[in-house]
Batch of 2 targets.
Target 1
Amino acid sequence: MRRWNGWGDDSIQAHLAPEALDFLQQQLGQPKRPQDASLEAVCAQIERDQPSRFGGALAHPLIDIRPEARLRSSYGQSLGDWIQLRFGQVARVSDGVAFPESRAQVRELLDWAAAHNVLVIPCGGATSVVGHLLAPAGETRPVLTLNLTRLRALTDLNREAQLATFEAGVLGPDLEAQLRAHGFTLGHFPQSFEYASLGGWVVTRSSGQQSLRYGRAENWFAGGTLLTPGAELNIPPLPASAAGPDLREWVLGSEGRFGVLTDVTVRVTRLPEEERFIGIFLPSWDAGLAAVRELAQTKTPLSMMRLANAVETLTTLKLAGHAGQIAWLERYLGWRGCGEGKVLLFIGLTGSRAQVANAQAEALGIVRQFGGVSTGQMLGKKWAAKRFAGVYLRNALWEAGYMVDTMETAIPWGGTTAMVNAIENAGREALAGFGERCHAYTHLSHVYSSGSSVYSTFVFRLGATAEESHARWWALKTAICKAMVAQGGTISHQHGVGKDHAPYLGVEKGAAGLAAIDAAIQHFDPKGVLASGNLR
Amino acid sequence: MRRWNGWGDDSIQAHLAPEALDFLQQQLGQPKRPQDASLEAVCAQIERDQPSRFGGALAHPLIDIRPEARLRSSYGQSLGDWIQLRFGQVARVSDGVAFPESRAQVRELLDWAAAHNVLVIPCGGATSVVGHLLAPAGETRPVLTLNLTRLRALTDLNREAQLATFEAGVLGPDLEAQLRAHGFTLGHFPQSFEYASLGGWVVTRSSGQQSLRYGRAENWFAGGTLLTPGAELNIPPLPASAAGPDLREWVLGSEGRFGVLTDVTVRVTRLPEEERFIGIFLPSWDAGLAAVRELAQTKTPLSMMRLANAVETLTTLKLAGHAGQIAWLERYLGWRGCGEGKVLLFIGLTGSRAQVANAQAEALGIVRQFGGVSTGQMLGKKWAAKRFAGVYLRNALWEAGYMVDTMETAIPWGGTTAMVNAIENAGREALAGFGERCHAYTHLSHVYSSGSSVYSTFVFRLGATAEESHARWWALKTAICKAMVAQGGTISHQHGVGKDHAPYLGVEKGAAGLAAIDAAIQHFDPKGVLASGNLR
């Protein structure tokens, strides 16, 4: 059963090694273990304090008004969401959830909502980390969540053109399983893969770990159907077009404000003949940066580059357990010039056997110029095996008394190090205001010829209460968002904007850009049926 | 000096070999050599029939109202444009041309036009083949052409991020020369490279011959400034962003309807260590199709794929002259299994020496599976040397009595052959209605994993008069456009929509899509200052 107040399936329990807990305690001080609220108590609270407004004249046979369904569709996976759920202090949940099973039912519900002055919030796998699913503050209309996860069929597969059409609510593992049966893959593997939906990836412009080969959502989203409150936008899956504005781009990043995405055609690939992940150490952050920049700018055909800074590298090694093996590895790396301050780079190699061999030779030739030391596939296999398990550590950390948040941006080369420093310092300073410490570390998860993403993780102690915990989190998040846009970065490289990042959108888009987005919202949704407060 | 009624510099004279003329005469019948109108006569006609309305209260110091300047900025390179110019029957030219030298002057002219009820048509290198530059039929306002080609400076180069910012009017060769001085290239080489402008490439979503490596305009356009009638849209050159709609995409394909693009930041690359073009024959069209599809779907890192069908292959060999060498080559190919019906594929290999060697081995390994026979770099070098010269042949063909038109689309795999047949037949049937023949042939200029472009050439005889020639051309073009959209193709893969293709845009975009584009036009340009009739 999926956890209602944490990540993933409740049969999977991540464990922190004693040395990992010792390490964090040294960094952050002794934590207090929290006491989680029970699902029953929270549901009772919803029943009592927020009775559904869907009843009587506003009843609809497709809408489920049970508290647990409402609760599960109103929260994502942001730290703010967790704080509310774990402490049992839920703010606003939707009045009901519909699980449409056809495009016609989505249309019916949209029309019904428009006719009855109901706000609609579309929802996929409920993995948002930027507050997409909460009803907007101050909203007085009843709120209907449209949970699309029963729309999960592969409805068309054009093997020759490698185009697959799915209903938009299909979740990552289900999508890959349906494709794998035919020998194909989409290759989109964000960390939230296990629960995130295809439609969610499109409307938030998601990027997977191997986007270097398979592309960001922009690259593999070929077309589909968006049901707007008044119309139906159908986008054919052309390989390319120079015929005016590309309407795919009006769906990508629309975050449920222009319409509900019901059908998605994606560009797929045959399952690769071979795949390898190789761990490479470099002597310093600057050497690592220079190496990944060179790999990207020479268009070396890798499927992934992921460069951890020195603190993340150290943290990874510490949290891995296996202190004996790590000590041996560090001795070897020291001999090879990678001592204190060393950084860990993972590269992915995917394709035919010849491509993998060629790309590996090209890549290792380049990283060696920067002092890189390959450790072969040993660490890479470990990373790949745990690529979707790492996120379960958040559960274990919470239970040990620690909060974890991650923040991500992207910036042209030249600004990377300043951005990393600004973000990590902002987090530390924000918590210092509470007399708290913060363990901050960073990796570049996506590398482009003109720049990279910057993905930072912050571990800090829970407060004694929901309010205290929330205050710490919000201070940290606010400080980091301000630092990101001040440094010229985007407010989101891969998570979307939601409500939490909406105040910062204007720095990137400018007044004219915001006005254009508002005009599009006004065009597609003049009555505000989808005015969830996400994006704008 | 640039030709006013044909392609390119008038010091460059393309010649057709006698056997080429014989070949065409066999295909099409004996042509009649036309008598071109003189520039002086056409300018006198403009002076007499279309006096400029910019004078008196409507005078502006930046506006040139001399007939030749007005003429040169009102026509592009479509066959319809040529017919008007060569026969000296010009329809509507603009009332004046301004050559702004700064962003401030563009703003001043836009504001002046808005205040004085003047229509503005932006213009770059005047290479449009879809009628962008003509004043719209029925327009009663005075028309100002904004020729941006004096805005040509490289204003910023971030070597580390490989981002170059240019003023938008810079032409291809000037842009490449400015970059090459710093060791970089944009790598965007459409056939119109010699005269096309950077801004034009962006607003029409241009695609160059080596887009497989360097990307389409969508891929290398990183950001810039669009002056709309009421505002200024500034787009920062982020490497990637998941923050809502991507405003770059509101500039790409806007064809001057949302604003005037004044500054463009592009993603550039270091000049490659090595570049090769290799000519490969395959035994049949089906074998060629299967080979390029496999190369694309395996992501073999080529910089170009260009597959000619059998008639284009034959025509290329016939027009090349060198009958003796060709006969020898054909004997050799016959022994290797490529006889009648053989097709010619050019692949481009660009990058480091290692990348070129690896990609060549991978590519040749794949094409061999489909019966491909490499002829090494011999034909490839010839192709590369003449890549921008071929378009000069249009001049020589016209002077010999033949018109040439090209039409292009893109479609998912599975539809390619039906599309080629439909287009070529539509052209032949349209001309049969006039008792004329048509020599039609096709190549795939751009290949993607999910499909390809289809680029067809039509050679047919001039009529005795402008009207007769126009009637033939328009019948051909109309029949082909209808065939393209009926087959599910886009109305433009690389040339934009302009006025000529605007009637067909709705098939691709749908009613909801057109309404959204119209809403955006209404938002950016409520007064219709830029209502040129292009796109919509």
Target 2
Amino acid sequence: MTTVGVLGATGAVGQRFVQLLDDHGEFDLSVVTASPSSAGDSYREAANWGLDTPIPEETADLTVRATDPGAIPDDTDLLFSALPSDVGAAVEPELCEAGFVVSSNASNERRADDVPLVIPEVNADHLDLIDVQRDQRGWDGALVKNPNCSTITMVPTLAALDEFGLERVHVSTLQAVSGAGYSGVTSMEILDNVVPHIGGEEEKMETESRKLLGEFTGTEVDDHDAVVSASCNRVPTLDGHLENVFVETRDDPAPEDVAAALADAPTLDLPSAPDPLIEVFEDPERPQPRLDRMRGDGMAIAAGGIQTTDTGIQYNCLAHNTIRGAAGASILNGELLARDGWL
Amino acid sequence: MTTVGVLGATGAVGQRFVQLLDDHGEFDLSVVTASPSSAGDSYREAANWGLDTPIPEETADLTVRATDPGAIPDDTDLLFSALPSDVGAAVEPELCEAGFVVSSNASNERRADDVPLVIPEVNADHLDLIDVQRDQRGWDGALVKNPNCSTITMVPTLAALDEFGLERVHVSTLQAVSGAGYSGVTSMEILDNVVPHIGGEEEKMETESRKLLGEFTGTEVDDHDAVVSASCNRVPTLDGHLENVFVETRDDPAPEDVAAALADAPTLDLPSAPDPLIEVFEDPERPQPRLDRMRGDGMAIAAGGIQTTDTGIQYNCLAHNTIRGAAGASILNGELLARDGWL
Amino acid sequence: MTTVGVLGATGAVGQRFVQLLDDHGEFDLSVVTASPSSAGDSYREAANWGLDTPIPEETADLTVRATDPGAIPDDTDLLFSALPSDVGAAVEPELCEAGFVVSSNASNERRADDVPLVIPEVNADHLDLIDVQRDQRGWDGALVKNPNCSTITMVPTLAALDEFGLERVHVSTLQAVSGAGYSGVTSMEILDNVVPHIGGEEEKMETESRKLLGEFTGTEVDDHDAVVSASCNRVPTLDGHLENVFVETRDDPAPEDVAAALADAPTLDLPSAPDPLIEVFEDPERPQPRLDRMRGDGMAIAAGGIQTTDTGIQYNCLAHNTIRGAAGASILNGELLARDGWL
Amino acid sequence: MTTVGVLGATGAVGQRFVQLLDDHGEFDLSVVTASPSSAGDSYREAANWGLDTPIPEETADLTVRATDPGAIPDDTDLLFSALPSDVGAAVEPELCEAGFVVSSNASNERRADDVPLVIPEVNADHLDLIDVQRDQRGWDGALVKNPNCSTITMVPTLAALDEFGLERVHVSTLQAVSGAGYSGVTSMEILDNVVPHIGGEEEKMETESRKLLGEFTGTEVDDHDAVVSASCNRVPTLDGHLENVFVETRDDPAPEDVAAALADAPTLDLPSAPDPLIEVFEDPERPQPRLDRMRGDGMAIAAGGIQTTDTGIQYNCLAHNTIRGAAGASILNGELLARDGWL
């Protein structure tokens, strides 16, 4: 078994990590950290457990540690980071310097030239950027990132459609409140309402997509040429980001070609990797967040509403934002790190 | 005073007509119709009044009539139609043949060559198609349509931006449940959910927009050249359609030019016409359905989130779907018909 | 294996039966019925599957039968009824006369003197009313009922507290929309709203509770003396009925005595029976519908907020209304029927 | 005109005060205070205006002052307090000592023997406690409180029913999220959920009700004898508290007697006082929060679902929690203070 820890384990994403790591076949969760005020408490006390499955008993009994290199046992093989980005920016480099491998969901350094930004089914080869990273930063450890939740939802579909020549992407998102964390969206903001703006989200989708779809040359990643314009909305759903995607393509594929390309997207043989990666629906009313966010145990992308336009195609896609879009994404990256011998 | 009636007065849109016509300065509501089973009842009994203002007392005491030319007094100057499209398709032509002028929200015949599809602030001149219509159909009456609620929300903004050369439009809608009528969306469909499809809606936005923005030659309307691709979603809001619009333009306007063009859109001097037509917000989190749907008493368009892209501009717009998008739209068309001497 | 069927298998409760019977260790689902218009279709076609787990493949391939004694194979050991009460009233007696044993969720005949109304953990002995029933009606089959969803939520707690001398019950319910079926509550009725009335529900709670808590004398059930007054509300939750209960008791138990009585409620060794029957929370903010409705796989009762008053006690209880409150309740009754040799 | 100020004017209740005081016929709002960090800003800048009507322009241009006796002009006739209770506890006595009359919605000191807790239509005579207060505390000013929002909703109905001999009250509340302030309830807590506990609320209902219904002897208030047991729930509605009330009465009134007693509750001739005070609905599905919270411009109580039980009566009542239940309540108390010559 690989010994793992979760940094920032008491927040909304941290709890999702703890839930997903319970009974994981390869990872043994033995370290949970939180802010200094919680250090020393049991996880049961420190976490105000808010998921709809019971708190995992073994983790509940762990003592919460400070999020600090000195507080984490040296033999912890892999750390998952659910830290806020400002804390991540401060602590993750220290941990990597101290020799830890960190698979992080925090947004800091996602765009850094020597930090791999990875969705295993899309760009597993970018992991080799770790060599460049270690070289440049003198680290024994490593820092690997997964993209933002709204980006992850779309990019596997774009990767599957790149064979038709991606040229231009317009995307509107309908994002669930859990993406903002437990207290990120108040009830008075969102009941009977939509908020048509999520700070920084549009830029993340535009830049992270191009890096993920880019080509790793051996020393760096060349961004994909396609321009992405995003419009991001918060809607009154709990979990599951739905996205309307319009893609202008070089070729002129028929809807059935598009459906086939999505349905046949390559999958990986990793514990958390879904098969198929993308579930394609014929019913134009699907996918829907509540009905389809748990496809593939929350790790699959659901797609539907495929149509052609005069300049390309349009379709909808959906993923569970705190599983495939956050905690599950980091865990899958961790499984890839383990398989490829980086731990 | 102009004597008016409402066809289909007991449904969700019909009730909105009744609410808006209460205390209207120029229109006197004296006729309400419904399905044969309600004919003879008082409106109070027939309508299961569901709006959050009390039922207007004078209308409550009216006796409901059948939706039938023979049941409507000849001296009714103007009829508003809140009929379902299949009923409208059967009854509206009969009424026009019998000499009534009908301002209709029903979707039947919106695309007919000789039926004016009108938003007064956008294409008031299309009303002259009535001469063509009377000529071709031999009617003494007239049939005028307002567009679909999702189309009305966007088209005033597109009209204001046409000075920059509209070439291509991508739009995603986040539509309120009231757009589907009182029983159109069940609670189990929409709580904690989004439905990414509204039957026929995308096609309506694509075709109606081009007709509205088209040029009236004196005998027909030449559709605008811009291609519109729409993706329509139902979200858990009660009223107010929010739309994310991406426009490719010939010119390259700055955001402040776009804002000025929207804010300066021409207004009309009609009782229900808002001034300004378009309220422009600087705060990127606005407009929001719950906070902004009642701007201009529900008749204004709210816009915000203006940004430029590499090929044009993107922004959000919002309107109250059962006021500006349905009942209020027909009433405004009725006011235009009165002003221009068609009654 | 016991061969079972589901009557009315395409509705909201019918689908829940199909979901729960998938992979049931003792029951093999081989018959699904629906209205005549669906007979002959595959279940996949006939059901517009609306649950958030995939449709069970084996059931999906079954051919839907008419809800009619002649259409159901004689060797079907047990029928579960998810029929509307008017259809149940017409068909269930015919089926029982034809020799079938029917475990029914439909509300018809729940109050009939010779029809057992059963929650296995509360009044399993009432099942012996079947002898009376067969005697009086000349049936080879049998008809057994589970109570209404709002009643099931409360009665196991009342049974556990009867040791303190139940004298008077006031209860307010906060009921989920799924209790009204897929189309029972429209979105316009319930978004940003509460409906403080559910037709017939209050009377069901008042009469069914007393029968369930009553004593079976060998020939009939003597209702419990305690008077129940209920006030029933529909709230914007999907699943899970929450109830505020005020009980006047003969004795004067301390809160910890109440908690212990609830936590120690007897359980049964049946496949669907949860253990514990009642999960007691110390946190006064629990139970909550979304977080706690799936306790015991949706079959447990959750309780909390225990306080004493000057005349007795008050507390909250919660159960999943379409599992413990409907389909799961009938299945549990079926398991009891099987164990006790009635099939 | 009476010159008034609002303490804590930028919060959710503070904004409601500002909205309601716009165009008030007798009160001229000229002072707004907030926390020190906002002092010196315009109200437009300091308030993140969140109501669905535009910010009143005159108030928007006021300069925000610190909530401090020294910062408030001496000639301010009346101060409304929308302060949090801890701030209210610190500042309100200072202001009263400095000679200001404060009509406060804050919960501090509501139970103090010499502080009038007033609903004008219920216990206007309790205002004479001010003489006792001034005597005991040596103040030139005065402190008057309105009760908690959930209490205000119920007490006018109890007062109207006291003629039948109130003996015991059980009440369950279904309270809107706005009652907790703008950020009090997160979206993740309440979407598809109910929270069956509101800290301190049950005790407030139990004690405040008895004081409001109590008798003023000239020197003190003797609490009413009736015991109140409350169970308080937060539900996913924006505004409007709905309550299920069970009352045990000495007499045995028929439902029509109850309806008449409620409908005939005495009203007052004050600018914000509704007439009737209590609107009684025959339809058992009414009142509903979204449809009925704005009755009487948000100041009326709506009641319905009247039934008799073996020990008394049960019914539902509803009021707008931030108008009748908070800001409007304080303003109405202010109007009473003005009428009775206390300013």
